[in-house]
Model the fold of this input.
Amino acid sequence: MTNNRDDNLDPSRWPVVPFVPYRCPNCDRHRVKTSNSRGRVRHHVCLACGMRYKSYELPAGSVAEWNGEIPSDE
Ligand SMILES: [Zn+2]
Done:
């Protein structure tokens, strides 16, 4: 890993990466506790309603094509 520290302090010139906020599929809140992380799958429990759910990390650019399923090899 090379040290690639960037001293550019102007945010308007920084590159941008996608971020998709995840919400509870039951109550649509974002109050969440992450209990486990295995590869690209994370386990969560909603602090508002108690529902357990998973999130799946996607490569940048593939969010629109994702079918909502976690591949069986994950
Ligand atoms: Zn919830």
